[in-house]
Amino acid sequence: xxxxxxxxxxxxxxxxxxxxxxxxxxxxxxxxxxxxxxxxxxxxxxxxxxxxxxxxxxxxxxxxxxxxxxxxxxxxxxxxxxxxxxxxxxxxxxxxxxxxxxxxxxxxxxxxxxxxxxxxxxxxxxxxxxxxxxxxxxxxxxxxxxxxxxxxxxxxxxxxxxxxxxxxxxxxxxxxxxxxxxxxxxxxxxxxxxxxxxxxxxxxxxxxxxxxxxxxxxxxxxxxxxxxxxxxxxxxxxxxxxxxxxxxxxxxxxxxxxxxxxxxxxxxxxxxxxxxxxxxxxxxxxxxxxxxxxxxxxxxxxxxxxxxxxxxxxxxxxxxxxxxxxxxxxxxxx
Length: 334
Hints:
Elements: H1 2-26, E1 29-30, E2 33-34, H2 38-43, H3 47-56, H4 60-69, H5 71-74, H6 84-88, H7 94-103, H8 118-124, H9 128-136, H10 152-161, H11 166-181, H12 201-204, H13 210-232, H14 236-248, H15 253-272, H16 276-291, H17 306-327
Antiparallel strand pairs: 1-2
Helix pairs in contact: 3-4, 8-9, 8-10, 9-11, 11-13, 13-14, 13-15, 14-16, 15-16, 15-17, 16-17
Signal peptide: 1-24
Keywords: ANK repeat, Repeat, Signal
ANK repeats: 80-113, 114-146
């Protein structure tokens, strides 16, 4: 009798314990405490983490309160170095989250551990509308990624080349127009300091279509100013990049003639201050300029034959050096 009572009590205690354990496991837990909804989860976290979870749970009212009361939450970063703004551009309802964060003072140009801004994150997620908004708000589109050295312009051209959707193509065009309007460098190298004509951002983009036409029109408008700047700064690498871009853009022969006329006027200035190794580079730049266009410089008697002008300057300099050496060795500068 007594054993039967004890057996019944033991069975009741066993099943009640199992039931309590099952209920406990079914409820959300955080640091040993049980919670029934996201609000309770948020209430025990540090303010900076509360902001992230409010963003993830789409609790924008609570997010506003946290950002108003905690300056640290505005500059908080996760283990990848991403701020709230980095996270927000990947959300489906970014149109509500991103403007809210910008109004509350979250840094627009903060970098993650890979050296990328929220604008570059938006492009990686192909959220072109968010990218347009960030550029209009003043995001830095000249900064290069730490890993590959891409700017926003270079990344845009790479992504646009693989674009198949007409809707996305329109968005790429809008963003490109905005970047060019605000001063994106059309002659930049795709990967930073590694100078190679095949890795120019302009040449990494589409080879035809509306985006290519936009780039060509902008090039024609700004090319004389950019080339004049390169001549004034004696920047032969940039001048060479501009010539490669101009040749790739397939412009009219009259336009190439105007380009050669500009280089012809600036050639003496470049030659005067150039050392011998730089003069060799200068000769290559002039040769490339002669080849630009459809005619491929077959006519050696054209108005602006830059290679001939360069060779004439080299011959003149050599004669002056020989004379100086012959008459007075102390004044020879060879």
